[in-house]
Amino acid sequence: MYIVSACLAGVKCRYDGKDNTCEKVKVLVEEGKAIIVCPEVFGELPIPRKPCEIVKDEEGNERVLTKEGKDCTEAFKMGAIKTLEIAKVLGAKEAILKAKSPSCGCGKIYNGEFNRTLIEGDGLTARLLKENGIKVYTEEELDSLS
């Protein structure tokens, strides 16, 4: 059983109210092999919402902020925790999450300057899942899955 980002399964829950439908993920859900999650919705953020990025301060502390500087860190943390709880209940050992997202990004995320530049890093949910032994993939890596 996988947990998968809801936007990849066709749910219009992105920050801009759109989806990122990935046919392979949709098929996994339709076949009952995956359960959809949206950490940002679980964190009670609205649809649509202002785009957010992870920003590091001078001491290296991370916050999830909108371009205007509104702090959404607690909502992102709550969504990550709820996603982990669902994964544990399901016994999910793998997740397919949306690349580059401040929640779901794995390996590469935006740099916090809202200029579309990618840096190495993980979104809050991807990091929490990995810390708890769940293998995280993005839709960009689906061809490597069996």
Architecture overview:
The chain is of the alpha/beta class and 146 residues long. Helix content is 26%, strand content 22%. It has 4 helices and 8 strands. β3 and β4 form a beta hairpin. α3 packs parallel to α4.
Number of helices: 4
| Percent of residues in beta strands | 15-25%
Largest sheet entry: 4 strands, parallel
Shape call: globular
Helix content range: 25-40%
Question: What is the mean predicted local confidence, pLDDT?
Answer: 96
Helix/strand order, N-terminal first: EHEHEEHEEEHE
Strand order of the largest sheet: 2-1-5-8
Contiguous runs where pLDDT drops below 50 for at least 5 residues: none
What is the SS-derived class?
Answer: alpha/beta
The N- and C-terminal alpha carbons lie at a distance of 13 Å
- How many distinct beta strands? 8
Radius of gyration, in Å, reads 14 Å
What keywords describe this structure?
26% helix; 146 residues; four-stranded parallel beta sheet; alpha/beta; 22% strand
Give a quick rundown of the structure.
It contains 4 helices and 8 strands; from the N terminus they run E-H-E-H-E-E-H-E-E-E-H-E. It has helices at 23-30, 39-42, 73-90, 124-131; strands at residues 2-5, 34-37, 52-56, 62-66, 94-97, 108-110, 118-120, 135-138.
SSE blueprint:
Elements: E1 2-5, H1 23-30, E2 34-37, H2 39-42, E3 52-56, E4 62-66, H3 73-90, E5 94-97, E6 108-110, E7 118-120, H4 124-131, E8 135-138
Parallel strand pairs: 1-2, 1-5, 5-8
Antiparallel strand pairs: 3-4, 6-7
Helix pairs in contact: 3-4
